[in-house]
Every structure is written in structure tokens, then in C-alpha cells.
Amino acid sequence: MTAAPHLFQPLKLRGLETRNRVVISPMCQYSAHEGHIDDWHLVHLGRFAIGGAGIVFTEATAVQKRGRITHGCPGLWADSQIPGHALVAQFALRNGAIPAIQLGHAGRKGGMQRPWFGNGPLDQTDTKRGDMPWTPVDHPPYQSPRIGPSHTNCQKPRLTNLSMIMRLLRVAPSPLAIRLPRFTALMVISCIAFFLPSLINAPIDMAVICLDV
Ligand SMILES: Cc1cc2nc3c(=O)[nH]c(=O)nc-3n(C[C@H](O)[C@H](O)[C@H](O)COP(=O)(O)O)c2cc1C
Mutation test of ligand 1: which of 22, 23, 24, 25 has the most ligand atoms closer than 8 Å to its C-beta? Predict the structure, then answer.
């Protein structure tokens, strides 16, 4: 009998074994409500698990409210956000896929409109809709090579200081370690790197770190 093509053969990654090498990459849906995901995300991600993918990644999920790109980005800064993620992870597992989460901090790329509202920096039009603007952050120790706004249509970030970074590191580690157990793989994408050390204790088998400057 001919062997299955390489793509469809299982892959062992430390403690993980995927049924094949098909990985669904993170895809922002801009459809969360105050960081909470809902049935949209369950259907969007669940269909890839049903379809047979080996690993299914969630979209960039903010560890801090101001680390969102838009008002529609998922978050994990509040306990009430956990059940939605757990449901997606459990569904993927039950259907043979490895559930993987992408944690992110948009840094200076944050504070933007959802694409269908213009894809520009949040402004007064958004305020009228209830989407209050916020100022994105960048910070000196790991500051991005290109100082200032990420793109011409992004906001000018506020530089954070060391004490703000230390404050985030103090609050982040244990809640994150508790919140992640249902996901077995993790990708971190960060326009600023300051929250990375907080993930060291997370119970995960695979981690991919990308710095998105
Ligand atoms: C609608 C959409 C949303 C995306 N959202 C994310 C995201 O949340 N995080 C991320 O790292 N990449 C994101 N990407 C990038 C994809 O994950 C992927 O890396 C990129 O599309 C390149 O893969 P491709 O050549 O197969 O399209 C997004 C891409 C698309 C088209």
C-alpha cells in the first residue's frame, strides 16, 4: 500500500502528536465583544477541526485590554473570557485537532478600527458607536526599530516606562498559567516583547514566538 503523502502523516512535537501536518494559521475575525468570543468563533474554528486539520490556531488574543488591535479582538484579561476559549479548545480536541492559542500584544499597532469601519485609527466616529479610542503603547527597552506610528495610518504610540512593564509582569504570570491549560500549543505574537517572560510557566507543549515589528 502507498504511504500517505508527508502532509498527512502524523507529527510528534515534544509531548504533542498531531494527526497530520496541516496547521490552520491565526486569522483575526474582529468579531469579539469586549474580548469575549462567541458562536462565530466556535463555528469558524470548529469547522477546521471537523475538516481534519492537525493544529487549529485561534486568532491573536490580547493579554491586556490595550493590547488589542481593534474593539473586535479577543482577549484573555478577564475571567469571563475563559469559557468561550475553553469551548473552542474542547471542541477541537473532541474532533481530533490540537487546539492552539495565539497570544498577542498589538503594542503600537493597537487602537485601530475594525476593517469594515475603515481600518484607520479610532476616532470620533467610533466614539459615537460606543467604541472608545485608546492610545497604543510602545516602550523604550525593547522599542521597535521604527520609532513612532507603525504605519502612516496608525496612531502615535505612547512610550511606556519600566514601572508599567513591571506592573504587567507581576499580574500576568499566574493568571495566564491557570487560563491556558485547555490549549496545548501556543504562539506568541507581540509588537512589544515585555509580556513574554510571563508565559514561561504556562503548561504547554509547543511555543512559537514571533515578534511583529
Ligand atoms: C483575515 C486574516 C486574518 C489574519 N489574522 C492573523 C492573526 O490574528 N495573527 C497572525 O499572526 N496572523 C494573522 N494573519 C496572517 C495569517 O495567519 C497567515 O500567516 C498569512 O495569511 C500568510 O499565510 P498565507 O500565505 O497562507 O495566506 C491573518 C491573515 C488573514 C488573511
Answer: 25
C-alpha cell at 62: 490580547
Per-residue pLDDT tens over the stretch 118-138: 999 999 999 999 999 998 877
CB-based contacts of 91, cutoff 8 Å, min separation 6? 42, 45, 46, 49
Q: Is 4 a domain residue?
A: no
User: What phi and psi values does residue 208 have, to the nearest 5 degrees?
Assistant: -120, 125
Query: How far is ligand 1, taken at its centre, from the CA of residue 200, in Å?
Result: 25
Distance, CA 26 to ligand 1 centroid (Å)? 6
CATH code, domain carrying 39: 3.20.20.70
Whole-angstrom distance, CA of residue 183 vs CA of residue 90: 9
Judge contact between 176 and 157, C-beta under 8 A.
no
Q: Whole-model pTM?
A: 0.85
Distance CA 25, CA 100 (A): 10
The answer to whether position 3 is within a domain reads no
CA–CA gap between residue 182 and residue 99 (Å, rounded):
8
Which domain does 179 fall in, by range?
10-211
